[in-house]
């Protein structure tokens, strides 16, 4: 990384040519050192793109294994097309390196990009400790003219009420830029998203901060840069995106619980309803997981002195789906003449979404716990994980599942690997398909898909030719 020089991107340093064209050239030529704080699933792709564009990036992460991997040109984030190659290339070119010391990174940089996690506390308030820690390191090393961009999701007013005064106090001056520039990326397509799948939203605490953010991100993205009125508006944009999805999924989930009462295929009805341009109901399922959607409602519900009844209700509905899933399995096992308390149940998928090794807030955890509490012997299969630590389940391999005398299966997360399961190798099972992803229309098993109801029974397959079931291992 090139040694740090005062560059005056924010405009405080009036020496030399500080026109937008000159600032753009300085950024692209590597004269403006960039630090990216947080090299996780979203941070590493962002840092790699910054390095590719500017040629002068240091990434900071408190995980020394991550730092060691990056400096070796290796990518610790799995299943991100193009990312391993981009990390290797930028590191080999000297455009990208990593450190476990955020203060060191801050001392070397003029543009500071923060993308650390924002979990929730046990009291369900935003845990901003990681953000505050980085802000203290950055603030202590802020030169006049530096710029700070926050990409991690935070409660509205965090930049103005918390970060701006904290940075100013640590820096001993207020001549720096601060803008909120929310990440809008999804795992599995991060590079595509960072480079411009959607407009990049930026909002500054003042006009000059917004101008610099627009200038910088205009070089990273092939899409438009959407500059909103201020940092708080930009913070709202990111939170609103998550709230919309949580409320919408809650509607889909509540409708799905009525499938049996309606005597109708709710998923089919949703699909047909969505052909009308003013309707966009999401898909139901066994619950909502991840580090985003289950957390963001609390950035509003518990951070402001006003009731948010709709958001609270949506959370209650989505949090109730694991219980609904287990109740459904219990009822379907009763219909098949089986007792859950004496059953061996396999959970397919522990991560919160397919292809992502992330288990935060996954519905598989309460499902496994409820099954275990009811006396079931619970096993789990997940190709993304090495073990089932933290789950009330025993991890087994996908091939090993055929060696277990299973009574039931609950599909929570439809990893593509599950497409290869040979269902005919199992004795008749009771299956709850939480995502309607299993092709079991003609089967010897009793299948209930959330949102559709019972989709197959042994009786529905009785008129087919009998299938010779091979022994395990054949």
N-to-C CA distance: 57 Å
Number of helices: 16
Strand portion = 5-15%
Q: Using the coordinates above, name the CATH class of the largest domain.
A: Alpha Beta
Radius of gyration: 25 Å
Strand segment count: 15
Low-confidence stretches: 1-7, 10-14, 462-474
Strand order of the largest sheet: 3-2-1-4-5-6-7-8
From the structure provided, what is the oligomeric state, counting identical versus distinct chains? single chain
CATH superfamily of the largest domain: NAD(P)-binding Rossmann-like Domain
The CATH topology of the largest domain turns out to be: Rossmann fold
Query: What is the general shape?
Result: elongated
Q: Characterize the biggest β-sheet.
A: 8 strands, mixed
What do you see in this structure?
This protein is of the alpha/beta class and 474 residues long. The protein folds into three domains: 210 residues, Rossmann fold; 81 residues, N-(1-d-carboxylethyl)-l-norvaline Dehydrogenase, domain 2 (Orthogonal Bundle); 141 residues, NAD(P)-binding Rossmann-like Domain (Rossmann fold, 3-Layer(aba) Sandwich), CATH 3.40.50.720. It is 36% helix and 13% strand. It is built from 16 helices and 15 strands. Helix 10 crosses helix 14. The N terminus and C terminus are likely disordered.
């Amino acid at each position: 990384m090139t040694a740090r020089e005062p560059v005056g991107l924010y405009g405080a340093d009036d020496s030399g040519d500080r026109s937008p064209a000159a600032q753009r050239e300085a950024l692209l030529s590597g004269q403006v050192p960039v630090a990216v704080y947080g090299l996780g699933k979203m941070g590493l792709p962002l840092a790699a793109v910054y390095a590719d564009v500017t040629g002068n990036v240091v990434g900071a992460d408190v995980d020394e294994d991550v730092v060691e991997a990056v400096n070796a040109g290796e990518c610790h984030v799995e299943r991100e097309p193009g990312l391993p190659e981009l990390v290797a290339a930028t590191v080999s070119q000297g455009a990208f390196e990593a450190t476990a010391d955020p203060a060191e990174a801050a001392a070397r940089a003029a543009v500071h990009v923060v993308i650390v996690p924002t979990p929730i506390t046990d009291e369900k308030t935003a845990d901003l400790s990681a953000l505050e820690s980085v802000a203290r390191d950055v603030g202590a090393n802020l030169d006049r003219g530096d710029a700070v961009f926050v990409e991690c999701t935070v409660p509205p007013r965090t930049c103005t009420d918390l970060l701006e005064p904290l940075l100013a106090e640590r820096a001993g001056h207020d001549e720096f830029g601060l803008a909120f520039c929310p990440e809008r990326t999804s795992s599995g397509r991060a590079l595509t998203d960072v480079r411009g799948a959607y407009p990049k939203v930026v909002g500054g605490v003042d006009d000059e901060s917004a101008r610099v953010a627009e200038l910088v991100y205009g070089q990273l993205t092939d899409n438009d840069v959407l500059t909103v009125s201020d940092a708080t508006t930009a913070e709202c944009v990111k939170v609103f995106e998550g709230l919309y999805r949580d409320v919408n999924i809650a509607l889909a989930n509540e409708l799905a619980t009525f499938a049996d009462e309606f005597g109708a295929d709710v998923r089919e009805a949703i699909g047909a309803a969505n052909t009308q341009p003013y309707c966009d109901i999401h898909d139901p399922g066994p619950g909502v997981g991840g580090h985003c959607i289950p957390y963001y409602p609390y950035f509003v519900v518990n951070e402001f002195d006003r009731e948010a009844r709709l958001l609270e209700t949506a959370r209650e509905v989505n949090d109730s789906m694991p219980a609904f899933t287990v109740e459904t399995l219990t009822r379907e096992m009763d219909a098949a003449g089986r007792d859950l308390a004496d059953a061996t149940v396999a959970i397919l998928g522990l991560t919160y979404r397919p292809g992502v090794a992330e288990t935060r807030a996954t519905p598989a955890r309460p499902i496994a716990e409820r099954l275990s509490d009811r006396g079931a012997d619970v096993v789990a299969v997940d190709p993304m994980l090495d073990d089932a630590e933290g789950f009330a389940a025993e991890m087994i391999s996908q091939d090993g599942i055929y060696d277990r005398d299973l009574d039931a299966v609950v599909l929570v997360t439809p990893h593509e690997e599950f497409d290869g399961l040979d269902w005919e190798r199992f004795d008749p099972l009771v299956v709850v398909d939480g995502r309607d992803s299993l092709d079991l229309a003609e089967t010897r098993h009793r299948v209930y898909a959330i949102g559709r109801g019972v989709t197959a029974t042994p009786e529905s397959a009785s008129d087919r030719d009998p299938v010779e079931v091979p022994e395990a291992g054949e």
